[in-house]
Design goal:
Aspartate Aminotransferase, domain 1; three-stranded antiparallel β-sheet; Aspartate Aminotransferase, domain 2; single chain; 14 helices; about 35% helix; binds pyridoxal-5'-phosphate; alpha/beta; 3 domains
Length: about 475
């Protein structure tokens, strides 16, 4: 297919119509006030309905999507989300509820939200959750405001710094800065874990919080997290865990057990809402008991089987989001958790870990892992351009598209040279993983036999290599 084909408004042919309505008995001016009438007709494409259907269907096929292709995008958990949960969230009583409805009219929705909070407490061991934040990064920001409120409540005003591991997700330092803190990065050791000595040297009376992504962006569990928590607490600081990739830990570990004070989850990613595509998300934040009073309002309160949104709570950091958060996402998460039950929840994490390790083990002779040991839900491999006629990570990503696979996350984490971050997720079959591994192995062989072919990839897609520098220097963000 050829993307340079005329699209959108340029396909328009003057006078062409989809539907032709019968002329109204009276002109629009008979119904509408003069100020609301158009002076000129709207500038819309003039096309037949059939052309419009074909146009959008064709565009949709130019893209990769989860329903057609493996999407091993590290740190993004592009997994299958059961359709049944979409149907549950779309039930009239949930989807049709007006956001301003009185609590008495939406008891069912409030009960589901309340139950979800309790389930998330059970899964993480934390004392209380808020479902308000609309995304992972929004959850981080909420957690950071909670930490600030905690230190303020103790009149401890010197704590102006947040320590962030260099293996953290990029949103962690950004959220800390947005929350008004200065950010100090703590280095990892060659084995990908936080350097305890560097951490201890950085901790002090100025430290408000330590932020860790667990598993970290190398896909590794921070095995010394208990010691990290103890060191942070001994210095009067809190420990924040970025739990966006909780599919690696579900049913296997409770973060409260290793000393986490504040954590966010991504319901999109881990709990049955697709991630990406700009749809609504949800980044609930859980806290230890001592921090509960700082959580945002409204809180969902239960009294004798009746549920209410409490708009006021002493100590609260205030409102983070309109209404009660993205309730549709929360309902899907609740349906997902209840649909699985305790035993099979654990198998989500086990399969996520198994699949990542399977891919890692099948590829490690050609694409060496950043850290050569078993990983959690994702693995970080590398290309070795100096040994393979200059086969770079970008080349691998582009050539994979020709093989019918979406590309993994590349050049992230920043601490790994030529990084390829693969997250197969728990919902892929062995057959799909085998095909993916075979494609990567074929690309490696091709780099040795016919390097130009790989460097020029993709060959089968409507868009070839983009001029990324040109796009950054001369952005044209408007159509036409
Ligand atoms: C995806 C992700 C985030 C950010 O979540 P958003 O919903 O995109 O804001 C934060 N941390 C980690 C580890 C993630 O994988």
């Amino acid at each position: 297919m050829n993307l340079s084909e005329k699209i959108s408004i340029e396909k328009s042919v003057p006078g062409r119509r989809g539907l032709v309505f019968a002329k109204a008995a009276k002109p629009a001016s008979a119904y509408l006030p003069a100020g609301a009438l158009r002076k000129a007709p709207p500038r819309l494409p003039e096309m037949g309905e059939f052309e419009v259907v074909r146009h959008y269907t064709r565009l949709s096929r130019l893209n990769f999507c989860l329903d057609t292709h493996l999407y091993p995008l590290g740190s993004c958990t592009m997994k299958y989300n059961p359709r049944a949960n979409e149907e549950i969230a779309a039930l009239d009583g949930f989807a049709g509820a007006h956001p301003c409805a009185p609590d008495s009219a939406v008891q069912g929705t409030l009960e589901v939200l309340h139950r979800l909070e309790k389930l998330l407490c059970e899964l993480t061991g934390l004392a209380a959750f808020t479902l308000q934040p609309a995304a992972g990064a929004h959850g981080e920001f909420t957690g950071i405001l909670v930490a600030a409120a905690y230190h303020r409540s103790r009149k401890d005003r010197k704590r102006v710094e947040i320590l962030v591991a260099d293996s953290s997700h990029g949103t962690n330092p950004a959220s800390a800065a947005l929350g008004g803190f200065s950010v100090r990065t703590v280095a990892s050791r060659p084995d990908g874990r936080l350097d305890m000595e560097a951490l201890k040297a950085a901790l002090g009376p100025q430290t408000a919080m330590v932020m860790l992504t667990v598993p970290n962006t190398l896909g590794l569990f921070e095995g010394q997290i208990r010691q990290i928590a103890d060191a942070a607490h001994a210095a009067g600081a809190l420990l924040y865990m970025d739990g966006a990739n909780f599919n690696a830990l579900l049913g296997l570990a409770k973060p409260a057990d290793f000393g986490v004070d504040i954590l966010h989850l991504n319901l999109h990613k881990s709990f049955s809402t697709p991630h990406g595509g700009g749809g609504p998300g949800s980044g609930p934040v859980g806290v230890a008991a001592a921090l509960e009073k700082f959580l945002p309002v409204p809180r969902i309160a239960e009294k004798g089987g009746t549920f209410a949104l409490q708009a006021k709570a002493a100590g609260s950091i205030g409102r983070m989001r309109s209404f009660a958060g993205n309730t549709g996402v929360a309902i899907k998460a609740y349906a997902y958790l209840r649909g699985h039950g305790a035993e099979t929840l654990r198998s989500i994490a086990e399969n996520a870990i198994l699949n990542a390790n399977y891919a890692r083990a099948k590829l490690k002779d050609l694409f060496p892992p950043a850290v050569d040991e078993p990983c959690m839900h994702e693995c970080v491999l590398r290309t070795e351009p100096e040994k393979t006629n200059g086969l770079k990570t970008l080349d691998v990503a582009k050539r994979l598209l020709d093989h019918g696979f979406y590309a993994p996350t590349i050049y992230f984490p920043l601490i790994v040279h030529e990084a390829i971050m693969i997250e197969p997720t728990e919902t892929e079959t062995k057959e799909t993983l085998d095909a993916f591994v075979a494609a990567l192995r074929a690309i490696h062989a091709e780099a040795l036999a016919d390097p130009e072919k790989v460097h020029a990839a993709p060959h089968t897609l409507p868009v070839k290599r983009l001029d990324e520098l040109g796009a950054a220097r001369n952005p044209n963000v408007a159509w036409g």
